[in-house]
Amino acid sequence: MNDWVSLGLGSIGGALVSEALKFVIEEAKKFKSFKPLSKDLAETMERLLPLTREIDSMQNKLDLSSGELKKLMETIEKAYILVCKLRDDPVWFYEKSLYARDIEDINGEMTKFCGIDLQVLQYRNQLKLLGVADHLVDMVYSLGKKMDGLTMSLVPASVFRDLCSVPKLDKALVGLAWPLMELKKRLFDDSVVNLVVSAPPGCGKTTLVTQLCHEADVKGHFKHILFNVVSSTPNFSAIVQNLLQHNGYAPHTFDNESQAAVGLWTLLVKLRKDGPILLVLDDVWRGAELLLQKFRINLPDYKILVTSRFDFPSFGYNYHLKPLEDGDARALLIQWASRPDKTSDKEYEDLLQKILKRCNGFPIVIEVVGVSLNGRSLTTWKGQVESWTLGETILDSPSQPTVLECLQPSFDALVPNLKECFLDMGSFLEDQRIRASVIIDIWMELYGKSSSILCMKYLEDLASQNLLKLVPLGNETEDGFYNEFLVTQHDILRELAIHQSESEAILERKRLNLEIREDTFPDWCLNGPVVNASLLSISTDDSFSSNWVKVDCPSVEALVLNLSSLDYALPSFIAGMRKLKVLTITNHGFYPASLRNFSCLRLLPNLKRIRLEKVSVTLLDIVQLNLRSLKKLSLVMCSFGEVYYDTEEVDVSKALPSLQEIDIDYCYDLDELPYWVCEVVSLKTLSITNCNKLTLLPEAIGNLHKLEVLRVSSCINLSELPEKTDRLSNLRFLDISHCLGLRKLPLEIGKLQKLKKISMRKCWRCELPDSVKDLEDLEVKCEEETRLILWERLKPKMRNLRVHEEETEHNLNLLQMF
């Protein structure tokens, strides 16, 4: 008490309450032997500092001798006395358990004050400041008293003891041994308080967590394991009522969620006296972030485990449960489906592999298909597999509604714009690895979005709901360049997108998939039909001879062509697609496909984006199409062969007056940039990446006065940039990362006064000219070696220079591209 008096406090209500509290906090942090108790106490007290400062400033106006403030002062005094005793007593460790109990009691009192009294007190003070009538102030005060009194009404009663018990498992686990070990490791990690297990529907999240709760070491550690299923429209008060009744207390009717929060806190404090607590909230839906926060209580040895189809990155550690690996999927299928009679080993194995390919590791799908085949004849097994080869999906079968019932709520939970985006994903082939930029191009034109960033957010939103997967290929890129992300989607989720689109008649659908095997067309397109779809996807195999039927597609705005043959003629009916805005042609064969009938694209008035992947094309042909609305041209893994760049007969500025972006990626035989590119005066972004044969850029590139972004990354044989690059007066971003052969930058690069960012990882051999010092407010991204060799010496001369180190990621995800 002497120290308390020496600080001028003397008794409760002294002059420096905040100083006393700061002293207690600092001392509490020193007692490492009591962690995490002392850490929790310090964190709780830090929340009270603003209030104590206000008390210091208003001590003459506040009554500290009664009510909540008296209780607070007494608790602070207890804490002060305790830390002084620990500081001055050299043998306190002999009574460590006693002191630990004291610390826990003080922390509980302060936590309760922060959670209840402090909120009521602050609200009451706000009402007084606003001049609200006294009777209303008294009503708020009474509410706080009622909430406080609730803690005394928890009278034990023998009711609903199993309301929040862990469910029993009625099936053997397959393929969850590794996830179980990983999850258990996180659960026992003291630094992890809240965990989220997320995955697409039907992947076994609840099964995994249920088994976790039944593990002997988990049950041995947590004295109370509470398991509650959260609905898509959760009610916090109802969940708290369940928890109370499960623990033997009579039902409570809460007037509001604040009272429910008091009930939860009181229950957890009581249970905590027996030992650690694990609260499992199963099947939590998107939009429940605020609900989850209400369960977060600063209490030692209290953890929350959430299962969800959605990610909650702000809540805690996220563990993503993946579909089953091949071996585990096979074991699970064999568990559910007995082998049909009279099958040879080879025949049986062949059927198993085809079924497993269709199920693709989804436990719910494997279970449903397995149950439907269990005990059935060999003919039934063969018929099931054959029906899939003919286009029937698992979701189409009326005898197997369980899978659709499992998946449908995930679609129903999407907001309208994300529903449209998800449905569009059905237009791509199964198992296809799609560049994010492909999807973004389609969405920008279909939905009139001017920002690629917004469309990328849609992809991230779908990924956070586990309806697709975003795979980064390397370092984060800038300026709306999303080639560094792959999008993949599980086959069953693609089938869900297609199933949702098939509710209307074929010719009336907004999205339509046309699959052609060999030269066989579906019956519906044999009589010259009129298709009303705005998004049309056409897929052909390697036997297709390009003998097209006539189809009228006046409403198509986005056309996705998936081909596999070496020789491919574009369908002539494209010429009638007057509304066409986006054309994506992707060859899934091993070698570049030769494209014919390219002229059918000529003069399409609204075509704004063309993307060609793994095709052989003459660059001059694109100029001669006279696509006056074309804004973006993307060429990926294309072959240009023997190219003639003579454009004397073509006025490029008139033929492509709207072209703003050219993206050339992984085009291995590009050794020279076509001269006509330098005549596209409207160009704002030029990206040439991963083109190993490219050695020089033409001097005429300086004619691109509107160019804002020049990206020539990973062109390893590019030796220099043209000197006339200094004429790019609007250039703001230059990316030369991984240009390992680059030896110098233009001498007068300092003239580019709008240049604000340079990305140059692995370019430490490149010489920087003196004029680079004239670039004001420059941001450079590079790895440590480039920073030390090139830029460190310039920092004293470039006051606003900012150099950010980014180590190159050796990303194995790149292998998924090929």
UniProtKB/TrEMBL annotation:
Belongs to the disease resistance NB-LRR family. The keyword Plastid does not apply. Keywords: ATP-binding, Leucine-rich repeat, Nucleotide-binding, Plant defense, Repeat. The lineage of its organism: Eukaryota, Viridiplantae, Streptophyta, Embryophyta, Tracheophyta. One of its GO terms (biological process) is defense response. It comes from the Eukaryota. GO terms for molecular function: ADP binding; ATP binding. PROSITE patterns: RPW8. The gene is LOC108833948. This is Probable disease resistance protein At5g66900. Residues 1-152 form the RPW8 domain. The keyword Repeat applies.
